[in-house]
Design goal:
By secondary structure, the protein is an alpha/beta fold. Helix content is 48%, strand content 12%. It is globular and about 65 Å long. The structure holds FE2/S2 (inorganic) cluster and zinc ion (2 copies).
Length: 301
Amino acid sequence: MKCTICKKPAVIKLRHANLKLCPEHLVARVEKVVAETIKKFHMFTPAEKILVAVSGGKDSLALWEILRKLGYRADGAYLDLGIEGYSARSREYSEKFAAARELKLHVVAVEEELGTGIDGLVRVARGKACSLCGTVKRYLLNHVAYEGGYHVLATGHNLDDEAATLLGNVIRWEEGYLARQYPVLPGEGKLVRRAKPLVFLSEREVAAYCVISGIQYIYEECPHAVGARSIALKHVLNKLEDRYPATKLTFLRGFLKVRDRFRPREPVELRDCPICGMPTAAEGPCRFCRLKERVSHGAPA
Ligand code: FES
Ligand code: ZN
Ligand code: ZN
């Protein structure tokens, strides 16, 4: 197998892009796709301060590396979720990555902010681990970004993640979620802008980028993700992709073209949470503060 561009030995075949690439051209392609995505969706400029949500996994570490190489000013934020074993290991990968490159990494322990980690939260609050964890992550990452004066919070969602989320939203016709599924969401008040610069890169490309660039990342998945719906959705899409290359990309791109149809007629009104002062669409305390209250009472609610 030869590289489509330089004819040297290729290490990866990307059927969806009709390319076979050598290490050098895979790295170049990945960085180019990210640079173009940032510009096309006006995600941020080199003058702005970026906070990368770092999990220790391949996507977030690759994102941080790419932004750095493209000349953006990016710090990292790692949330110690308090998941037995997994959190300690993922934290180690994140800290090592930052230290080796002399990058600034904010480390926030969920237990300190919430009174317990995700393992403990799952025991006292109703709901699936991933959705509870999602609430906690969104809140705390936004908090770190806002308090730190960052212009934008960047996350490592890749094409496989986005296509699976989209499929899940379409299956249930979640119009509200569809309206908010976009590579960049503007900030408002204390809600910091959010951007997903990797949405047009497949998981395989990102993993290959890490291996070639010598980025060490945690391979294991979060133990709470076992049996999660998102994994089943990814599985279905992988089957389709095998048979019909570029399914995921076509699905996502096609959606972005028609997404305007799902815009809410009236914008969601945000108020300040009476407890923490952060924005919320809910009447009364925000979801995070409500979870915190449950944790402090220690009983399932
Ligand atoms: Fe949050 Fe797994 S990473 S529940
Ligand atoms: Zn090449
Ligand atoms: Zn609150």
